[in-house]
Amino acid sequence: MSIQKIQTEARKFALQNAILFNGKANEKAVTGKVIAALKKDGITPTEIIPVITKVVTQVNSMSIHDQIMELTSLAPELLQREKKERDFSLPPLPFAEKGKVITRFPPEPNGYLHIGHAKAAIIDYEYARMYDGKFILRFDDTNPENAHLDFYDAQKEDLHWLGVEWDTEYHTSDHLEMHYKLAEQLIKQRDAYLCKCTSEMIRAGRFNGKACDCREDRTGEEALDLWNDMLANPEVGGIFRLHGEMESDNTAMRDPTLFRVIEAKHPLTGDKYHVWPTYDFAGAVEDSISGVTHPFRTKEYELRDAVYFRILSLLNLRIPHLMEFSRLSIEGMPVSKRKIKPLIEQGLVTGFDDVRLPTLRGLKRRGIVPEAIKQFVLQQGFSKVESVVNFSLVESVNRKYLDSKVKRYYFVPDPVQLSVEDAPKKTVKLSLHPDGTMGERTIHTSSTFFIPKEDAQKMKIGDILRLKGLYNVKIVKTGDTLTGAFAGDELIPETFKIQWTTNDYIPLKIIVPGFIFKDEAYNPDSLHELQGYVEKAILGIPFGEIVQFERVGFVRLEKQKNDLVGIFAHK
Ligand code: ATP
Ligand code: MG
User: Of the candidates 182, 154, 152, which has an alpha carbon nearest to the alpha carbon of residue 170?
Assistant: First the structure.
């Protein structure tokens, strides 16, 4: 009597614990709960402990979906806490009025977007929607050395994929003439000057907090001439600096550069312009003039906020309500174009869509869906606290999203042959999802099967296993291949259920991406492969679709050359 009671209690708490922790219950935690629950019945820990291990192992071999289903029927009250939908909406914006909020996402078209950009774009976009406002896509393409034509469209494609849609779109490079006019105004007001010092001198001046002679000599008429010379002829050189505060504690205010000469050909304006605004100038002016009310910037710009406000107030332009959030960093992943580019240049990854990269294209290939990225971003919120996030958080929302939506199949990693004596020939229809909404596949069986090596190795003569969805097999011979005997159709409780294929299988390679950085350095061991057999029904799945291989994980199917290949998303 008491053993059954212990088993039931253990099962309930193991399921609850597993559901809370990504499908894997912790034996200690479960033991604690069971002991506490059965104390009143006078059942002692000595009776309880031996039962727990087996129950936990069994529960841990189930999919989260099955765990939830079982707990729902066994003890639905234990699901309560987990089931409650969390509210991931963003906190209200300060000084925001319905219908009047304007946000913008300002990527530099110098690469494909990554999950950090997704954070920025989703927050900008969601706030505009929350307030029935407007969302602008602005290409900050004021460095012709970096901007590339291909990336304008690529970034738009990436945003469409994410589900982020914008109301208007423009390029900062469309507005250069206006920027020049504003620069002239600053010179005329003696709030900016042309500096002809070498970069070493400029650096030393900033370091020592000392203004150079250019500032004193060249405000006013002479500076205006120099500025016009610079605009007319790139050879003239020099940089255009704000008359800031050289003695300021905030080094960003020590006469920052607002314009400089860059002679590279621009993808949109060609060689029409060679004087380009810096981010300090272009960012502030564009936010103001395009009507943005709440521009978001990452925290690393904090010191530059003073420059932003100074420029706008000197130009008498509207000052938006600048907002800040932390830059997203993920352990073992480069969430920055600056870190991704060298990996591509050195040939350490196959390209921007390498499955180990957190680019939207890389994530898409490894089966991370846009809905999960959005959930993840909103879940993180936009606190200013810099933190390094673990990628398992992305996987966990992705898993929750996919679990009820993708078809399930059997994949047998490291297959070992199992021959079944007296095997009845069967035609079985197996459901593609336990909820029964996705149809089924038909499998014809003979006497030859393949099962995972990991399971095969555990088998001893006399053990009974169940080929999941088919029948029981009693092991009669072990070794490199197994032999078994048909042992009935009846479900025997607690029998180990194993995924299998017939000899009508498809060989499949699954690429398993790992962390590309280990202790900040490139990890050469970041890509693994899993070889195995998959049931033939997989051929009915279109390339690009994600499936769940039971007990293996979620895998996206992809065509590489002429082969079907799987990319592992996560358990
Ligand atoms: P990268 O190093 O990837 O080039 P970046 O900030 O220079 O980063 P931009 O294209 O200039 O890239 O960025 C466009 C927007 O995306 C900016 O508003 C920036 O703040 C935001 N952004 C970029 N990377 C991240 C990140 N890791 N986390 C949050 N926001 C980011
Ligand atoms: Mg940038």
Answer: 152
